[in-house]
Amino acid sequence: MMMRRHFIFNALVAAIGTFLKACAGLKASGIETGVMFKFSEYPDLLNVGGVASIRILDKDFIVTRTSAETLLAISKKCTHRGCTLNFFSFSGFECPCHGSGFDLQGNVVRGPALRPLEKLASRIDEVKNSFIIY
Ligand code: FES
Q: At 75, is the pLDDT very low, low, confident or very high (cuts 50, 70, 90)?
């Protein structure tokens, strides 16, 4: 009985080791995790300066086309107490709850919020005519 338990334990350790190596291999092989969106669904983002409101994994983000090669995805959730930013202008974001202000990069320009807005990394895939938010 003891040998059986020992065998099961060793098999379990070997399986975990194999799993961890496989995970490391996925990362090393360049397989991405992220959410892909088609530009055809967000045509405003085809042009520099274009803006779209996108829901990503149950969170609302403002995505801005900042250059031919880059996008900026900024959370619409205020870092003060979590209200949804509902005002957007070319000078930045304002929170309707207590008046915090954020610039277009998500940095605080007026309190009471102290922390910048959450940002997600992104990448444009020209071949697939899409973009990926991480
Ligand atoms: S929740 Fe945005 S300023 Fe308070």
A: very high
- Ligand 1 near 98 CB (within 6 A): yes
For residue 115 and ligand 1, the question of a CB distance below 6 A is answered with no
pTM attached to this predicted model: 0.69
Residue 134 one-letter amino acid: Y
Class at the top of the CATH hierarchy for domain 35-133: mainly beta
Ordered by start, the domain boundaries in the chain are: 1-31, 35-133
Protein residue closest via CA to atom 1 of ligand 1 = 81
Q: Which residue among 78, 93, 108 has the greatest number of ligand 1 atoms within 8 angstroms of its CB, and so is best to mutate? A: 78
How far is the C-alpha of 113 from the C-alpha of 104, rounded, in Å?
Answer: 15
CA distances to 42, 50, 88, 91 from 60, in Å: 15, 17, 13, 20
